[in-house]
Specification:
Layout: H1 3-10, H2 12-16, E1 25-34, E2 49-58, E3 68-71, H3 94-97, H4 101-107, E4 111-115, H5 135-149, E5 162-165, H6 169-180, E6 186-187, H7 196-200, H8 208-220, H9 230-235, H10 251-260, H11 263-268, E7 277-285, H12 291-302, E8 308-315, E9 330-331, E10 334-335, H13 336-349, E11 361-364, E12 370-372, E13 381-390, E14 398-401, H14 405-408, E15 415-418, E16 421-430, E17 435-442, E18 448-450, E19 456-458, E20 461-466, E21 470-473, E22 479-485, E23 492-493, E24 502-503, E25 509-518, E26 520-521
Parallel strand pairs: 3-4, 3-5, 6-7, 7-8, 8-11
Antiparallel strand pairs: 1-2, 2-4, 9-10, 11-12, 13-25, 14-22, 15-21, 15-26, 16-20, 16-25, 17-18, 17-19, 17-22, 23-24
Helix pairs in contact: 5-6
Length: about 525
């Protein structure tokens, strides 16, 4: 083993103290120089750009070498710098548990590298929002270092066994790395995007709630901007701004960059998917990267021919201002963390005793059960949306029921598990004239429940759109329809206290009509 690892072992006891690990671990703060200079950061010399990382190693090298797992955090957050506590709360959310996989991975003989993204933490350069020529090149440099300095486990093909974990921005790097780096064996991209521009501004309407949250995270995390943040964060909150086009002269450049820095860019460029095994983890109640992003990522990776599976949990990115809350990281009877560990064991250690417990496709439903199948339910059941007007300043949702026979044809216990589609005509009446709608249920007592918290904007005109993915089991007495809003917390920005100053605010009024196709299936047995 190299000298740097011997030095790391000397400081392990001081760093970890009496950590409750079955196997002692070595933890050290290190860095490498990416070969990619960053002129925006003044790093144009031959040294390139610093990439800071933490190395976690078992003190005893497993026979055959270390399988390696890469780990990264979300936007505006830094790397792990100390061993996290164990994952001991199965009722906690994905975000509370994913970092806590690291102690278990180390106990099982994995080496783990947790790194700071470019422009974040102790790494150099400026953030380019997952540019394949910058951030992804940095990570490939980390892999070069690991292959050079660590005795890595190799497969029958002679390549090192390397996988990756992380959610949100920490999932975004995995989608591109899997395609650009042939040494990647498997990935677990979680709660991440397919087309980042669409996620931030579906149909060109700014998702102000999360745009401003990401700008806050950039400020709090002292993210250094490479030219793709300031134009968005400075312009979006200005009074009256609600559309991507309100970004002015920067709008086309930002649109092209955000679309290119993800699977959508590779797909639209005609780049075929590389064969790589992947467990895609997404959530239905995610108001930034919804189930549709996970389905598109799953389909794109699956087109490469690898073993690609999909697990859709209940909650991902939630908006507390819309009274959304985190939920346990489960899909029916399957614990997401157990599935991720079983996946990495099988793909990187050849210990596949738990792989059969990982479903090919699992979508968590709102009653604690799950839909499992070969694919999500397609948008196949059509229902008319009659012409309806929404007045400016309307309080709460206006519920428009679909014809009763839409549900009656499906029988008791019908399941919604997929992405609805719609053909919508919107006539603006006042303000932006943007329809805000989501698939919804009206319960027996009259309560209107927006399914999976998905509310989609549709601007004035006639549009074919994908609504947010939904996951629910129908109950006796439920009415299925659409909830219409004049304004909604996802599409406005307001200070901590005070009236909204930007977004689709209370002056918005419109008339809407059209047709919706529902991912509605007959009775599916609870799992």
């Amino acid at each position: 083993m190299k000298a740097i690892l011997r030095a790391a072992a000397l400081s392990a006891a001081a760093i970890l103290g009496a950590a409750p690990c079955a196997q002692a671990a070595t933890v050290q703060q290190l860095s490498v120089q990416s070969v990619v200079p960053d002129p925006l950061a003044g790093a144009s010399d031959a040294k390139g750009t610093k990439v800071a990382f933490t190395l976690f190693l078992p003190d005893t090298k497993p026979e055959g070498g270390y399988p390696l797992v890469l780990h990264a955090s979300g936007f505006g957050l830094g790397r792990l710098q100390a061993m996290p506590p164990r994952d001991t709360d199965p009722a906690a959310s994905y975000w509370s548990r994913v970092d806590r996989l690291v102690p278990t991975l180390v106990e099982r003989g994995f080496a783990v590298i947790s790194f700071d993204h470019r422009g974040h933490g102790d790494s150099g350069g400026d953030s380019r929002i997952m540019d394949p020529q910058a951030e992804i090149a940095d990570i490939r440099g980390l892999i070069d270092w690991a292959e050079r300095e660590l005795p890595l486990r190799k497969g029958a093909d002679g390549k090192p066994r390397i996988g990756s974990i992380g959610g949100s921005y920490g999932g975004g790097y995995q989608m591109q790395l899997a395609q650009l780096e042939p040494r990647i064996t498997t990935v677990i991209p979680s709660m991440t995007w397919y087309d980042l521009q669409h996620s931030l501004a579906p149909q060109g309407v700014l998702k102000q709630g999360f745009v401003q949250f990401e700008c806050f995270m950039a400020q709090r995390g002292k993210v250094r901007d490479g030219g793709l943040l300031a134009p968005l964060c400075d312009t979006a909150p200005k009074p009256g701004a609600w559309a991507w086009s309100d970004l002015g002269a920067d709008a086309p450049r930002l649109r092209d960059a955000y679309q290119a820095h993800g699977p959508s860019g590779a797909s639209w460029a005609g780049q075929p998917a590389r064969r790589v095994d992947a467990l895609v983890v997404q959530a239905s109640e995610d108001v930034l990267f919804d189930m549709g992003d996970g389905l598109r990522n799953w389909r794109y990776l699956k087109s490469g021919g690898g073993d690609v599976r999909l697990m859709v949990l209940r909650s991902g990115h939630v908006n507390p201002r819309a009274e959304q809350r985190d939920k346990p990281a489960r899909c029916g009877g399957v614990d997401a963390m157990d599935a991720m560990l079983a996946w990495l064991d099988a793909k990187l250690r050849d210990a596949d005793t738990g792989l059969s417990s990982v479903p090919s496709l699992c979508i968590a439903l709102d009653d604690g059960t799950a839909y499992q199948g070969a694919a999500p339910v397609s948008a196949q059941v059509g229902a008319a949306l009659p012409a309806t007007e929404v007045a400016a300043g309307s309080k709460g949702p206006l519920f428009v029921a679909f014809p009763a026979d839409v549900l009656a044809r499906q029988g008791a216990g019908a399941v919604l598990a997929g992405v609805p589609k719609a053909e919508i005509e919107v006539k603006g009446k006042a303000g932006p004239g943007v329809a805000l709608l989501g698939l919804a249920l009206r319960r027996k007592g009259g309560e209107v429940l927006v399914l999976s918290d998905q509310v989609v904007p549709v601007p004035t005109g006639r549009h074919r759109v994908a609504l947010g993915g939904v996951a629910a089991r129908m109950q006796p007495g439920d009415e299925l329809g659409v909830a219409l809003f004049s304004t909604h917390p996802q599409y406005v920005w307001a200070p901590a206290s005070g009236a909204p100053v930007a977004g689709v605010a209370g002056s918005n009024a419109y008339a809407v009509s059209g047709r919706v196709w529902l991912p509605l299936s007959t009775d599916a047995a609870p799992r």
